[in-house]
Design brief:
The protein is an alpha/beta fold. A hairpin with an 8-residue loop joins β1 and β2. α4 runs parallel beside α5. It is built from 11 helices and 17 strands. It is globular, with a radius of gyration of 20 Å.
Length: about 325
Amino acid sequence: MTTVHAYAATKNGRTLEPFEYELGEINGQDVDIAVEHCGICHSDLSMMENAWGLTQYPIVPGHEVVGTVSAVGEEVTHVKVGDRVGLGWHAGYCMTCSECLSGDHNLCTKASPTIVGRHGGFADLVRAKGVSVIKLPNDLDLSSAGPLLCGGITVFNPLVQFNISPTASVGVIGIGGLGHIALQFLRAWGCRVTAFTSSPSKIEQALNLGAHDTLNSRDPEALKASAGRFDLILSTVNVKLDWNAYIQTLKPKGRLHLLGVVTEPLDLSVTPMLFGQLSVSSSPVGSPETITQMLEFAALHQIKPITEHFPMSKVNEAMEHLHSGKPRYRIVLDRE
């Protein structure tokens, strides 16, 4: 038996408490990761507050895990003890459905999310199925890699899924935890990148991160003047916007792709979509293979999330900072 020292929410809310639990003997397909860094995602807060009705208390959040392998099951061959690895939103898949067998593990309806019905990475150790554990490139910075395993793959996955051309004109709505990584990926991909932002303070930052230009998302005239401009728009916000105004900025066969969890129904006018053969879509994270590609791409182009760091023992201060909406742009917990 292995004792895990962690921080858990024992009831609905934003407060975490020291928590210990026991892991049984490791089985053949499992990997144990000694946690060194763990990013904090807004999904962790949502799970702590049971915003999606999925939470089982006590819950140890944390699904942007970076660390070293401390133990492996006998059937695991792609990583070994001592390897630097990462673990994201999924800690396992059924491996028998058509989605898994087709390489679309992230669409598996029986996938095991790292923090749903099991304990995550706000701890000194986390266990997951080997298929979900990704070996990290040697050139990747460990301290900032965690947010790539959720936020990074979320914005990278559409580029692969939709075969986005390196010459495409792409807009990004929301320059925050997801958007600031999207700008870096898109610039390195070769795209013409525009940042939609309503915050003057973020204009210079967006340009430094890779945007060729910016567009005031609160200016209806600016949106009208951009009619027919974009091949793809990635929306990273979780609030309702005037989606029809953004639809008008798409080129024929253009796509509005929603990555933020917008809970309100979309109000869309079909006519411009029909005549322009436009699409509105969404996607979850990515398969293990796509995560591997994303990490290699990030290492090759030296793409790093902008992070703020807290020691693991200050996890409650970190969660309050996240709730304040002030992080620039992702928070990472460091094991002490």
